[in-house]
Write a structure and sequence with these properties.
This protein has a seven-stranded mixed β-sheet with strand order 3-2-1-4-5-6-9. It is α+β, with helices and mostly antiparallel strands. The protein contains seven helices and nine strands. The longest helix has 26 residues. The C terminus is likely disordered. α5 runs antiparallel to α6, α5 crosses α7 and α6 crosses α7. The chain is elongated and about 60 Å long. β4 and β5 form a beta hairpin. The chain folds into two domains: 123 residues, no CATH class; 118 residues, no CATH class.
Length: 245
């Protein structure tokens, strides 16, 4: 299966080239394996070919030209595929149209100065949490959460994923009971996720939102508020069981 991730490298024009990594999401360690010396995350620190290729891509080299550029090269393996999936994209286009929030476990953004931002993907699909949902979109249907780091290690990453899984369990139940419609279920999921992420991490959703935006009181919000006491109680039970297990 691997631990799949997408990696976006900033170009000199402010757009991005998008690359695939089959193991890059494993413990998010790719954040520390990409550098000016190892642009694609390999162990070879004398990777002149990788530096040259990335420089060409940053200046606008197209995908079709990469095969010829790499032909005949005897290269050591890298964690990130040197050939991009696409070029000339904005970050908004990547997170909305290219990132698969079910199958890609992480997303990395690399600046032109090799500052690497790591994001954990959180899929909004409820097909495994609700009996009434047959299939959920995977591309563009989720959120990206930044990760806190301490001494080179991600902090609270597994905890956030566990909280989100428990939240989806409850939302799926509320959907099956008719408390939520698919639309209100998604809104509630986004709002509660934003509350759990808080100010310590950044949350990005493909619509361009940085967090859940509270609208004026409406029927949708009334439904959410009526369900909140039950759902929060259910979450407490789930978390208690997980601690016992």
């Amino acid at each position: 299966m691997g631990h799949r991730a997408l990696v976006a490298y900033e170009r000199t024009d402010g757009q991005y080239t998008l690359h695939y990594s089959h193991w890059g999401a494993a413990n998010l360690k790719l954040k520390h394996r990409i550098s000016a010396e190892t642009p694609f995350g390999g162990d070879d620190t004398d990777s002149k070919w990788a530096k040259q290729l990335l420089a060409e891509l940053a200046d606008g080299l197209e995908v079709d030209a990469v095969d010829g550029y790499l032909a005949g090269e005897d290269r050591p393996s890298t964690v990130v595929e040197p050939k991009p999936c696409a070029t000339g994209l904005t970050l908004d286009e990547i997170v909305a149209d290219h990132l698969d929030y079910l199958h890609h476990e992480a997303f990395f953004v690399v600046s032109t100065t090799f500052e690497v931002a790591a994001y954990r993907t959180l899929w909004f699909g409820l097909q495994y949490d609700s009996e009434t949902v047959e299939q959920g979109e995977t591309v563009g249907n989720g959120a990206l959460a930044t990760v806190r780091w301490y001494d080179g290690e991600p902090v609270g990453d597994g905890h956030l994923q566990g909280q989100f899984a428990a939240l989806k369990d409850v939302v799926g139940d509320m959907l099956d009971k008719g408390v939520f419609t698919p639309s209100t279920a998604r809104q509630y999921l986004k709002r509660k996720l934003a509350e759990r992420v808080g100010d310590r991490q950044k949350l990005r959703i493909p619509t361009g939102e940085l967090s859940f935006e509270t609208a004026s009181i409406s029927q949708t919000q009334v439904i959410c508020y009526e369900a909140e006491r039950l759902s929060d109680s259910s979450l407490s039970i789930i978390f208690s069981r997980r601690r016992v297990d």
